Amino acid sequence: MGLMWVITAGFIISLGLAGLMLVYFLKGAMDSNDSTTIDQIQEDSAE
């Protein structure tokens, strides 16, 4: 019974670490400043 709990806890920890690594490396690969520099809101419209 104890082995089952250890395996379950290890699996959950492994999934958590894999998810954190995925988020960390995706944040590093994507530049969050692009959202403000590419699609800036124009102050005065010509229409």
What is the N-to-C order of secondary-structure elements (H for helix, E for strand)? HH
Number of helices: 2
Radius of gyration over all CA atoms, rounded: 22 Å
Mean pLDDT: 84
Instruction: Output the structural class.
Output: mainly alpha
Q: State the end-to-end CA separation.
A: 71 Å
Described by the principal axes of the CA atoms, the overall outline is rod-shaped
Biggest β-sheet strands, sense, barrel: none
| Low-confidence segments | none
Number of strands: 0
Strand content: under 5%
Helix content: 55-70%
Summarize the structure.
The protein has helices at 2-29, 34-37. By secondary structure, the chain is an all-alpha fold.
Explain how this protein is built.
With 47 residues, the protein is mainly alpha-helical. It has a domain at 2-29. The chain is 68% helix and 0% strand. The chain contains two helices and no strands. The chain has helices at 2-29, 34-37. It is rod-shaped and about 70 Å long. The termini are far apart.
Explain the layout of strands and helices.
Elements: H1 2-29, H2 34-37
For this entry, give a set of tags.
47 residues; mainly alpha; rod-shaped
